[in-house]
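Quick one, T. Sequence first:
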Amino acid sequence: MPELKSECDNIIVGLKSGSFDAFEKVYKLYSGKLYNFVMRISGGDSYWAEEIVQRTFVRLWEIHDQVSPDKSLISYLCTIAKNLLMNVYQRQTVEYIYAEYVLESSEEYSDNADGELDGKLLEEYIDRLAEELPPSRKKIFVLSKRKHFTNKEIAVELNISESTVATQLSLALKFMRDKLMAHYDELLPLVIYAALIKIV
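Structure tokens:
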């Protein structure tokens, strides 16, 4: 179908030059196919299929000047969508680590000795991160997450306001999240193993 190919080429050229009309045509042509693609790779998650399609087209508009008329646009869109979905899964995994081993650090991990060891490794990693905090922030973090003081108890113990405690805790936890994300590849095997230990 030479006519169809020519029309698609014209649309891509228009998109590359910043034509919003061309962008809308691309959306109409490919959003359905892209949705089906994301549904397949997400295991049928309709929420994330819709979300990723929208994010993909936002991303396409942001980088429209980089689109090559010589390459398949649907393949280009699928690559963007796959990367966005992988980023979502990566962030969810980091949030799992954060919830399991920072916010709920007092929870027992498993009766299995290997599971306890694996949980201990993650606890030790969090402890190493705590050593990088400023001294006063580290003291508040330890009192809260290791000794389980309330914010009010910490405020009394350190003779500071509760709002200061809350602010310092928030900064400490943001630091932890950022570090966990930066070291995702290092931590993922431990998280997967710990999750498997809990299942068996």
